[in-house]
Amino acid sequence: MAGIIETEYGRITISEELVATLAGYAAGDNFGIVAMTGKTAGDALLKLVGGTNHKRGVKVTTVDDGKAMVIDMYVNMAYGVSMPAVAKNAMDGVRYRVEEATGLKVKAVNIHIEGITV
To answer: How far apart, in whole angstroms, are the C-alpha atoms of residue 78 and residue 115?
Structure first.
C-alpha cells in the first residue's frame, strides 16, 4: 500500500519503496551505523552480484489508511559507539528526512541492531 496525501488539487501517492530508499539514505549518513542488513532473498542476491540497494535492511509499513508510515531498520553498528545514542540519532534523522521529503507522518522508526563491526 502506498502513502496517500489528499490536496485540494487531487491525490498524491508515495510508494513504500520510495520511503524505504529515503530512509536508507538518511540512515547511512549517521555516524556509528556501518551497514544495513538485508532481510529478503532479493537483498542477498543483490549483495552477491555487487549491486547497490539503498532500501536494503529497511521495511516500511503503511498505517492509518495511508496517512502514516512505520519504518523498521536492520543495521550493523560500529564497535565502541553508544548504541542507544546512535539509534536515537538515526531515528530522529530518518523521521525528519522522510517527513520533510514526502509530507507523510512517520509514526515510528524502529532500529534493530543485528551486529557490530570492528
So the answer is: 9
Q: Which three cell numbers mark 118?
A: 570492528
Q: Model pTM?
A: 0.81
Cell numbers placing 24: 536508507
Establish how many alpha carbons lie within 13 A of residue 51's alpha carbon, considering only the half-sphere containing its beta carbon. Answer: 12
Residues 78, 32 contacting (CB under 8 angstroms):
yes
Distance CA 93, CA 56 (A): 17
Q: For residue range 7-43, list pLDDT tens digits in order.
A: 899 999 999 999 999 999 998 888 999 888 876 555 5
H-helix segments, 9-102: 16-28, 41-49, 83-102
- How far apart (Å, rounded) are the C-alpha atoms in residues 74 and 58? 6
